[in-house]
Amino acid sequence: xxxxxxxxxxxxxxxxxxxxxxxxxxxxxxxxxxxxxxxxxxxxxxxxxxxxxxxxxxxxxxxxxxxxxxxxxxxxxxxxxxxxxxxxxxxxxxxxxxxxxxxxxxxxxxxxxxxxxxxxxxxxxxxxxxxxxxxxxxxxxxxxxxxxxxxxxxxxxxxxxxxxxxxxxxxxxxxxxxxxxxxxxxxxxxxxxxxxxxxxxxxxxxxxxxxxxxxxxxxxxxxxxxxxxxxxxxxxxxxxxxxxxxxxxx
Amino acid sequence: xxxxxxxxxxxxxxxxxxxxxxxxxxxxxxxxxxxxxxxxxxxxxxxxxxxxxxxxxxxxxxxxxxxxxxxxxxxxxxxxxxxxxxxxxxxxxxxxxxxxxxxxxxxxxxxxxxxxxxxxxxxxxxxxxxxxxxxxxxxxxxxxxxxxxxxxxxxxxxxxxxxxxxxxxxxxxxxxxxxxxxxxxxxxxxxxxxxxxxxxxxxxxxxxxxxxxxxxxxxxxxxxxxxxxxxxxxxxxxxxxxxxxxxxxxxxxxxxxxxxxxxxxxxxxxxxxxxxxxxxxxxxxxxxxxxxxxxxxxxxxxxxxxxxxxxxxxxxxxxxx
Lengths: 250, 321
Ligand SMILES: Nc1ncnc2c1ncn2[C@@H]1O[C@H](COP(=O)(O)OP(=O)(O)OP(=O)(O)O)[C@@H](O)[C@H]1O
Ligand SMILES: [Mg+2]
Hints:
The complex is a heterodimer. Chain A is built from 10 helices and 12 strands. By secondary structure, chain A is an alpha/beta fold. In chain A, strand 9 and strand 10 form a beta hairpin. In chain A, helix 3 packs parallel to helix 6. Chain A is globular. Chain B has a single domain, classed as ABC transporter involved in vitamin B12 uptake, BtuC (Orthogonal Bundle). The longest helix of chain B has 33 residues. At the A-B interface, helix 2 of A face helix 8 and helix 9 of B. The site of magnesium ion has 4 residues of chain A, from helix 1. Adenosine-5'-triphosphate binds next to helix 1 of chain A.
């Protein structure tokens, strides 16, 4: 379980997150949605200690973020950040293998290589294995980065807008994969999404952020309402209900 | 990859052999220790600079930087100037060589580390600011020492100039040993960091996510860089000495060549390859220039020229991406 207690964050006096309390129990897919600048990436970065906590506490299972060893946390929680910037020039296969670093510390064994091979196949990256990251398309790169986080083999997986640049097939494929990991593998997935329809289709739970606060939190059917679109997003798209699932008409 | 390392090793071996044997005048019993010490000094300097440059490029995530643009040779001249200024030429000449070595090493490492740490603590990993500050500080130190040089008595000043050249025409075995005692452990530590450096080279966020927070690794690498450059400069003198001193561009050339010859992002590959290439450039270059072509142009001048061109090429290629 990820527990977030009284987390506030500010940059140069500007409040970015305001006193956030949130529990993300083990298992399931939680979608984090909200307008641009709501603080979604900031919250995810704080959980994954990419940014330093200023106030409040965050716990992942029995580890306290900021106090526990970085290596221990890396075996429990993986993040795919929004920017996905990689400075070194390396190949797709090498990148995915680096995802295993918390386990092999630079000396990958047979087990690590097995997982890398399996991950590459799972993310349809076999053909791109030996291509350099700067020589593939944006969507392929995004897939490689998601594969790297997946290969880390952690119980918790945080993904910040992984669907960026993905075509509809790749986006559905990735979401199914995450869905399976949660249902079949008992993993906990937290994913920032902009497409509310994807959130409604694949998430068990939606957390809405707005101006640094949690604006709403619950099952997709209860969260996706006309009020959400007008109140939080400031747009007047229509919502239809297909089966039990709400669908935003864009 | 393994074959390329064998080839690099062979070229280095041939260069060393050529350096030791070509154009031999006088007795071998004199030549072998004399040239052997110079050969060892070249290897040690080359390895230190290659390692320092590779580490610097990794932690700054930039492939066209070398630590020497931070004005290390100006620090060396400053130490020399201050010593002659305060002790006088005769007082300076009376200083034992090991003391000078440690003084140089100490000042260069301490100031380098201080500068780096102060800057790292400030702007969040703003490496560009760090580099610019280093350059400006280098200019400032140079200006200060030339100011002091003007206040030194002209006859003492000429001895200062002589001192900054003469110490390098032959290699003091004691200094060589001291330098090896400092550099080899530093290179060994860099080698031990190789897997962590791979992770750091991915960038701040990726490294943190993999459980390797960059700050600690960056600090450790910076300490190693300062010690390596300090020890190489204290042994061979700065570029201006006209010997094999750490040229501004030597590191840049050898690391760029290493990336071409053994393309990989792994430091387990790049580190030994850069060290081998560095030995080849310094020893092979020295052999060809001195023993084969009989040119009197000092090697650093050629390295500066080639390195300057390479720097421009890298810069232009980088800006096109
Ligand atoms: N380095 C920074 N300096 C100043 N303000 C920042 C900085 N980084 C983020 N912010 C501000 O913090 C707020 C939250 O940013 P965050 O990246 O968490 O938003 P987000 O919800 O992920 O948005 P998006 O959907 O666009 O990715 C924004 O208002 C942003 O302007
Ligand atoms: Mg974001």
